[in-house]
Amino acid sequence: MNKIIATLVQDNLDEILVNWKELMKEDSEERFFQIMSQSVIDNTSREFAELMVSNLLEGENKYENRLNIFTSKVVRFGWSISFVMKAINHFANIVYELLETEKIIVDENIKEYNTILTNWITPMRDGIVDTYAKTWERTVQLQKIALQELSASLIPVFDKISVMPLVGTIDTERAKLIMENLLEGVVKHRAEVVIIDITGVPVVDTMVAHHIIQAADAVRLVGAKCMLVGIRPEIAQTIVTLGINLKDFTTTSTLQRGVEQALAWTNRQIVEVEGN
After folding, report:
1. Based on the domain organization, do 63 and 14 belong to the same domain?
2. Which carries the bigger pLDDT value, residue 167 or residue 16?
């Protein structure tokens, strides 16, 4: 029975894929079909169909290897779990209709084929979703580690002046890391002025502001001044709208102005030297 279904799918694969892609475009709000090139869409769709068939014909090890490769790819493409579920359901429905059209499913054996299709689709759906979830969790974890490595270092730029550039979303876990690195850096570099640059922070809400204020208070407790730079117009508007109090902060719009102010605090300034 499995071989009959697999052969039918393989013989009618082009027609199945055309119908499947049309259903996915109509039913899904995902951007995959809008932003990807036609060749990527065609190749990925065919890989998906071959994965569906491989579960009927191949051994468990070979199928699992194909499953892992495919799920890693669609995670990079941004397929959501709901998108994956719709893809499986539409594919199964198209195959069922084809079995009816070809008179393979008739009244006498309808229950038998329904059982076969259920036993085919259900474990496959569970396997794809489970593998997808694990792949997605691993990807998110790697991204989180990369963000932590990129955006939590205190960098000395002049004697007594250090800068901490922040990049990406700040959550409670990252805020703790930022605080630790900030205080360790102040002591290590003997900084008198610390500039926190939020140019790379996409959104400043109440929680992010709270973490930044806590970091500034901690810096002051170890005897250094703190300045906040990189406040874009939209961020300034958000801060005012939310009623966030930054009165204890010196703020500037750019890092350049922040460095100039920090030099002034340490009785220095940038002087242009005329050439001979």
Report:
1. yes
2. 16
Nearest Cα neighbor of 227 from 161, 159, 177 is 161
Q: Is the same domain home to 253 and 159?
A: yes
CB contact at 8 A, 92 and 5: no
Pairing between β-strand 161-167 and β-strand 155-158 as defined by DSSP bridges: antiparallel
Whether residue 6 is found in the same domain as residue 139: yes
CA distance 66 to 39: 20
What stretch of H or E contains 228?
A: strand 225-229
- Separation of alpha carbons 94 and 49, rounded Å: 12
How far separated are the first and last CA of the chain, in Å rounded? 91
274 is a domain residue: no
- 103 and 170 in a single domain? The answer is no
Q: Which helix (H) or strand (E) holds 77?
A: helix 60-77
Best CA proximity match to 50, nearest among 1, 100, 13: 13
**Within this chain, do residues 131 and 188 fall inside the same structural domain, yes or no?**
no
Please check whether residues 133 and 207 belong to one and the same domain: no
Helix (H, G, I), strand (E, B) or coil at 100: helix
Q: Express each pLDDT in 211-253 by its tens digit.
A: 888 888 888 888 899 999 988 888 888 888 877 777 777 888 8
User: Are 83 and 187 part of one and the same domain?
Assistant: no
Q: State which amino acid sits at residue 225.
A: K
pLDDT at residue 149, as a whole number: 61
Reported pTM:
0.51
Mean pLDDT of the region 123-129: 77
